[in-house]
Amino acid sequence: MSIAVGSTVIKYNVKSGVYVPKIESPMGDIVQYYTGTESNLGKIYIDIERIAEETNRPLLYLDVVSSRSSEAQVKFASDVEVYINGTKLAFDSNGLSTTMFNGQNEHFKAVKNSTGTGAVVYGIRLMRNLIKDFDFTSVNIKMVGKIQYGTQLDSVQATYTIPVQKYSGNGYAVTIKAGDSKGFTIRERGTNGAVSLVASVWDIEAGTEMIDKSLTYVWEKAVPTESGWDTIEGQKTKTLKVDDTMIAAYGEFRCTVSQGSTLLGSDMRSVNDATDEYVVNLHPTPPDETINEGSGEGVKYEPKLAVRTATGTTEIQEGYKFCFSVKDGSGVPLNKYQDGNGQTETSVEMATTPQTSYTVTEAQCIQAGGDVSLTVFAVKAS
């Protein structure tokens, strides 16, 4: 059993050992699928403008977990800066975005924290559909925040992509959303700190969520095996409660939904445990964790297990090795025996082999068709 788990996406830099930032979407993956044509749109999923209550419209916020044990809740020293396709958003006095895209504005609304007198922007709420105003292309969002710790001012950033694409035929989308206001980060030990994951199924053609008691749910947890996943026994409903006993600093969960013998889809969601005393410092080379197309190069990881302290982390130099699990965007493992008998892969390439370092390759990115995720499990060295 692993004592700690770390994770990253091979694309942008994560400040290993200090802060782990990510953009969270409590209502699950935000997408803009449409039917019809560009000149005559049909139905839209998710149709933001048909959601009557503003608080029910999609929210994106910058969430940060610190490796310092004294920072139970990371707070921003100033407004989080939001960039849409590289353009910084500006907001009016009502919080609505004034930045023009294709001649239109007010696509987003600034969301501020509600504690204390110095409330600052920490995210955005989507107020309008993005399809036409962004020329039927995906929308890339970057958030940059500044965190004050003593006299030190640290800057963190994360990215999120909203896909915009035409959808043809009948189909379903499965997304895991937050079941409460805790989001996807455990900040308190015990059952009171548990976060709730809810699997929802959307009928894309109808544009509505399916409410059907005949749906079946299979929940899995990421593990360092060839399959990459292990079924969570006894979890057969749409809701999964995750507390600190179920993960080691970080965990990934997947839910597959079926209707009878028909597979409707699956989604995966990560959960951070900010209370865990152990973290994995990934130590990537190059530090920006980026692989350039055609370079033939990779990103090498030489992780260390670390213990949280008030000022940061203290790394444990010996006694532990690491299992490395590489997956594509759908959660399909990439480092496994492809031919079933190990003729083309060596043991050090496998997620089941504890080792001190691992290199994510361009070939794995090509196989995945883009970005890949890496989950690192710390285990006792034999």
Structure, described:
- The model is unreliable at 11-17 (pLDDT under 50).
- By secondary structure, the chain is mostly beta strands.
- The longest helix has 7 residues, at 362-368.
- Strands 14-21-20-17-18 form a 5-stranded mixed beta sheet, with no helix packed on it.
- The protein has one helix at residues 362-368; strands at 4-9, 19-24, 32-36, 41-45, 59-66, 81-84, 87-88, 108-112, 121-126, 139-149, 152-162, 164-166, 172-178, 185-186, 195-203, 208-209, 215-222, 229-231, 239-242, 250-259, 262-273, 278-281, 284-285, 298-301, 304-308, 313-316, 320-327, 358-361, 373-380.
- The two termini are 13 Å apart.
- The chain is built from 1 helix and 29 strands.
**Tally of contiguous helical segments:** 1
For the biggest β-sheet, the strand order reads 14-21-20-17-18
Portion in helices: under 10%
Name the shape in a single word: globular
Average pLDDT number: 85
What structural category do the secondary elements indicate? mainly beta
The string of secondary-structure elements, in order, is: EEEEEEEEEEEEEEEEEEEEEEEEEEEEHE
Radius of gyration, in angstroms, nearest whole number: 21 Å
Distance between the first and last residues' Cα? 13 Å
Strand fraction: 35-45%
Low-confidence stretches: 11-17
Number of strands: 29
Biggest beta sheet attributes: 5 strands, mixed
What's the arrangement of secondary structure elements?
Layout: E1 4-9, E2 19-24, E3 32-36, E4 41-45, E5 59-66, E6 81-84, E7 87-88, E8 108-112, E9 121-126, E10 139-149, E11 152-162, E12 164-166, E13 172-178, E14 185-186, E15 195-203, E16 208-209, E17 215-222, E18 229-231, E19 239-242, E20 250-259, E21 262-273, E22 278-281, E23 284-285, E24 298-301, E25 304-308, E26 313-316, E27 320-327, E28 358-361, H1 362-368, E29 373-380
